[in-house]
Amino acid sequence: MGYQNSPASAEVREKKSRERAMAGACLSSSSCCWNLASKFNTLSLNGPHPNAAALKPLSFSANTSLNLFSKGSVSLTSVQMPFRRSIVCEAAPTKKADSAAKRARQAEKRRLYNKAKKSEVKTRMKTVLEALDTLKKKTDAQSEEVISVEKLIAEAYSAIDKAVKAGSLHRNTGARRKSRLARRKKAVEIHHGWYVPAPVAEPALVATA
User: Fold this and answer.
1) Whole-angstrom Cα distance, residue 38 to residue 58?
2) Could you tell me the keywords of this UniProt record (predicted)?
């Protein structure tokens, strides 16, 4: 009596009742299917039928003949619907990141700025060197003509200092540029006799006892 009233025996009885119910449902469905097949044996779309015009759309393809149901060829197959899955694809961005694009813009801006500063320095130096060469070639040149050249040299010095301050030129490079102009000007003055360098004093020899 204890075994029959236990929870395990109740679960077994419930399981067997479910199996009997499923078996009965299968038998009823199979009998319905066989009855359907027997009914299709008497159905014909070619013969005289009061609703023949309504049944005409059943011939939906060339492979489906109107004698299909009259011959009673009925097949029952199970159809498994595929699962629907959606795939979302995202393309990689073609444009650069904001930080990289900003760095590229800044680098291009600095390149153009430095190029302009260096070009100005070269132009100023070329103007001074040409003026000094012209003055050196003149046979009747006067010392007052150096003043105009000195103004050009001052403008070149200013351009060089601005380029060094902006970072377009290194400070040592700027010093070499200014030294080149100063040496060239002194060479022209020495050539025309407007400047006489002081003689270099020889070091005195110290007598040793």
Assistant:
1) 19
2) Chloroplast, Plastid, Ribonucleoprotein, Ribosomal protein, RNA-binding, rRNA-binding, Transit peptide
